[in-house]
Structures are given as C-alpha cells and as structure tokens.
Specification:
The protein is of the alpha/beta class and 399 residues long. It contains 14 helices and 13 strands. An 8-stranded mixed β-sheet has the order 2-9-8-7-6-3-4-5, sandwiched between helices. The structure holds pyridoxal-5'-phosphate.
Length: 399
C-alpha cells in the first residue's frame, strides 16, 4: 500500500510549483534574473518594525484575534481606486493572501472542466496554471508593442460565438505586462471593454505592476472605462511594498466579490498584516514609497537596457516604461531552453520564454527581471548572459 494511492486524480497529475530555487551549482550561486522578486534593499525595514510596535500597542485584539481585515486597508484600496477613476464601495473589495489567492479562487467560481478561458500569449503562468488545474481550455491571444491584439480578440470571440461557446473570462495584464513589459493602449482598453459587454465576457484585469511607472502618463484601468460591470480588477501590495506580506485584492461586481468570498473558507486574510500594511501606508507614506521605488527600478531598468544594447546588439527588446521585466528576443537560432542551462553554467539564471506560454512556444524569447539584483550586478549578469549566448551559438557557426 502506498500513500500515493490516496491521492485524488488531480493530485496525481499535479506538477510542482514553477517557482523554485536556482539549480544547484558547485560554486557561487548564479545571479538570478529569472523571477520577479523585489530588491530587498528597498524594503522599508525600520518603518515596518515601528509600525508593528504601534499596531500591537493600539490594535492588539483586532490584529491578533480572529478578526476581519483592517477596515483602514479596505478604505486605502478604495481611495487608491478612486484616484484611478474607479468608484469602489467597500463591499466590492476582497482582500486575499496575495493576488495569487484571488486568481486561485476565480476558477472555483467560474470554471467547469472544458470551459474556455482567453489569455495573453505570452502571459503570467502562475495565473494560467490555476485556471488549467480547474480544467479550463486556454486560448492564447497575441501581444504586440501596444499590448493584447484586440482584433485577434474580436475575431476569436466571434468564432467562439459561432460555435455557441462563451468564454468564461479574458485574463489580461494590461500595464507593464508580465513578461512582455508592454502596456495596452487607451484605444485597445476601450475596445476590450466594448467587446466584453457585447459578448458577455468577464475581463480579469491584473494590474500587479501599474504603480511602478518610470515614464509617461498613467492610463485609465479598464475597470474605470467599464459601465456595465464586466471587469474584475486584481491588485497586489507585493510589488509596491513586499511580496512576503502576501496582501492582494480584487475589486469588481458586488455579486462576484461575494461569490469569491464564499470560497475563501479560511476567513479574513491575516488581520495583523492588513493592519501593518494600512498603518505603514497612512498619511501618503505608501505613495511616497512608491515614488522612491519607481526612481530605483527606473535606474535598474535603464542599466539593464544599456547593458543589453551594448553586449547583445543582435537581441531586440522593447524597453518598458515600468514594471519588473525585459522580454528579450534571442539572436536567430538560439533556443531559450537550450540557453537556460548554459546560462546557469556561466553564472546567470534566466526564465526561458517557454515558461510564459500555454502551448510550449516561446523558444525565441527569455524574460529578464531587473527588479531584484543590485544595480552593480546587473551589468555582470548581462555580460554572463552574452557569453552564454555566444557559447550556444558557437556549434552552429560555419555550418
Ligand atoms: C501579473 C502578476 N499577477 C499576480 C502576481 C502574484 O502576485 P502576489 O504576490 O500578489 O500573489 C504576479 C507575481 O509575480 C504577477 O506577475
């Protein structure tokens, strides 16, 4: 008798998390550009310690007992939404253990095995895996320099309608997309909102990176353009404060929020941490912190962009206006899955583009996160990457 005999069919088929530590190496660990981690030097450590002491002094019971989410946090989220042109009532907001939890609750409410879900190609596989696990059939829609290709979306919706298929939702990352770094134009945002209303499709607008803008003017979220209640906006404090706090949220139609809440059976997400986030953020402190983060991440992005242009002129990319990632097109003939282990041998870890598509494509791309490494290591990492690419190219040279 084996323990594994007790597993559900789903558990037997489950794969380990995509996220994981760098491959073991004998010597120094590689410099990692693979994951969207925050730069630990940018955590407001002392202020979080001070705020913790204040919370324990002033909100001991609310923070440490079984209790609801700190009301000040829901108010903060509503105020920030209001600032973006979204009128949010507090019962239309659900706070969760990271936006990942929201993305995991969504299929519980919306997906039956075989249902269709539309996603960008490439996209954030952390979300897609949650949809797939629920049995969703994915349709990947192309992304270009201006974000999701809305004509492809329109054509797909029409083709599905002809087959009597109504997709459950479109999952999109409109701003500083993960992994492509591009931002959906205003015209396309408007068109998506129109299409959602026409075809009765929910838009899941995952704006994890929206606040990390280095250049240009913010664009209105689709949630602010939607008059008919077809947009669920998903956000997180991971990128603007600290991922380890695990605080994310969703705002959307009241009935959908209530339905998502019904599956959040463990109760309110960490009351203590929600007090901590609200306490830190009070009096404009969060906005000031975000401005500091943007200044730092802008330098990292510029450093990586410059190093890439210098070291790898034959590998094109679109320099993003914000976020954490550069999506690099590899020189002709270099395959991402072949490059990744060679890069590790040369002391740098990258994410192969294949990890960002639902159908195994993406061999021509890699995702490089400039967020985590200190500025002075970014150039070294790119130099190592350039060497690894040359090593992969070598056997094909001259024949
Ligand atoms: C687009 C996108 N959505 C959601 C998440 C998950 O964030 P959280 O830490 O809030 O679970 C990430 C994390 O990398 C992300 O890139």
């Amino acid at each position: 008798m084996q323990l594994a005999d007790l597993y559900t069919a789903q558990a037997r088929e489950a794969l380990p998390p995509l996220w994981g530590p760098s491959l073991e190496t004998d010597g120094e660990p590689p410099l990692s550009l693979a994951y969207g981690l925050a730069d630990p030097a940018l955590f407001p450590q002392e202020e979080l310690v001070d705020t913790t002491a204040k919370i324990l002094a002033s909100h001991l019971n609310d923070a440490l007992n079984y209790a609801p989410v700190a009301p000040a946090l829901t108010t903060l989220i509503a105020e920030r939404l209001h600032h973006e042109g979204v009128q949010a009532h507090e019962d239309e907001i659900l706070v969760a253990y990271g936006s990942s939890q929201i993305l995991g609750l969504l299929p519980r409410v919306l997906i039956e095995p075989g249902d269709t879900v539309l996603v960008e190609a490439p996209t954030f596989m952390g979300a897609v895996r949650q949809f797939k696990r629920a049995g969703a059939q994915m349709i990947g829609l192309p992304v270009d320099a201006h974000g999701l290709d809305v004509e492809a979306l329109a054509t797909t919706l029409e083709a599905l309608k002809r087959k009597n298929l109504r997709p459950k939702f479109l999952y999109t990352i409109p701003t500083f997309q993960n992994p492509a770094g591009v931002t959906l134009s205003l015209e396309r945002r408007q068109r998506i909102v129109e299409l959602a209303a026409t075809y009765g499709v929910l838009v899941v607008e995952d704006d994890a990176y929206v606040d990390l803008r280095f250049r240009g003017e913010p664009l209105p979220p689709m949630a602010s353009l939607d008059q008919e209640g077809w947009v669920l906006r998903v956000g997180t404090f991971s990128k603007i404060l600290a991922p380890g706090l695990r605080v994310g949220w969703a705002h959307g139609p009241r009935e959908l929020i209530a339905r998502l809440q019904m599956f959040k059976l463990e109760g309110a997400s960490s009351p203590f941490v929600t007090h901590l986030v609200a306490g830190f953020s009070a009096n404009g402190r969060l906005e000031q912190h975000i401005a500091d983060l943007c200044a730092h991440y802008a330098i990292k992005c510029a450093t990586m962009s410059q190093a890439l242009r210098h070291q790898l002129p034959e590998a094109p990319f679109i320099e993003p206006d914000g976020g954490f990632f550069i999506w690099l097109q590899l020189p002709q003939g270099v395959q991402a899955s072949q490059l990744a282990p060679v890069a590790i041998e040369h002391g740098v870890e990258i994410l192969p583009g294949t990890r960002c598509y639902t159908d195994g494509s993406g061999e021509a791309y890699i995702r490089l996160a400039f967020s985590e490494l200190p500025d002075n290591q970014i150039e070294t990492a790119i130099r190592r990457l350039s060497t690894a690419i040359k090593v992969v190219q070598r056997p094909t040279e001259g024949g």
